[in-house]
Design a protein that fits this description.
single chain, about 190 residues, alpha+beta, Aminopeptidase, 8-stranded mixed sheet, 6 helices
Length: about 190
Amino acid sequence: MDAALFDIDTALLTNRCVVRRFREGEGKHLYRLISDNQDYLTDHFPILVAEAGANPNAAEAFVRERIANWLLQQDYAFGVWLNETTELVGYVHLFDINWSVPAAEISFFIDHQQVRKGLMTEVLARVVRFGFKQLALEKIYLRTLSDNFPSQRLARRVGFSREGDLRNEFRRPGGMLADLVRFGFSRETYGE
């Protein structure tokens, strides 16, 4: 464990959101978010749905595992909470951290009612800043389905660059293999 990471922020502020580490007892909020976005998440985040979407208890177990992993410096999961309503509307996860580089993959989604409002742009930019400034990552990357153009536009808007295509990298719930597109963002190109 790196003692320098003991005092990192657990809550990040944007103009309209609080992006923070989950707390015990918040599995019910995550379960509701997953249930409300079941169709999209089943196609794009089947592992999340399988692990946390079965019932509120499964979601609570998932939340507690994310808290433990945060404390163990294995991954960093954030809930996205609206300032006005304090409602959970999104999820961001820095994971598969390779501390020898250091580099991490990022994944994210937002509630279907919050799409195209610019929320995820400000949230993703803030979490990228956290990754570079507080975790001292050298690289953050993401993988998205090749037909997920909104996610690709968002990645570019925040500063990620397309690095390549990954053929037959993802199995859709129906069994079909799909291509992914990889985007990366290096600390050396980060402007702040």
